[in-house]
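[job 4471] stage=fold_predict status=RUNNING
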Amino acid sequence: MAYSNKIAEMLARASETDKVEFAHFLANNLDTAEQSRDSARVREYVAAFDRFAAPKQGEEF
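[job 4471] inference complete, writing C-alpha cells
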C-alpha cells in the first residue's frame, strides 16, 4: 500500500536542515515572540515533523 500523504512524504525526504528552517519559519509566524525564540520549541516542531512523516504500519513511500 503506497503512502498518499504528500506532506508526510516530503517531510520524510527533507534534510534535517530543511526541517529546522521550516520549524523556525513556523515558530516565527505562529508562536508568540517569546516562544519563537525558544530552541526547545523548534526541536519540538522538528520531532513532530518526524512523527508525522513516519509511514503507518504496512505502508511504504
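[job 4471] summary: The mean pLDDT is 83.
[job 4471] exit 0
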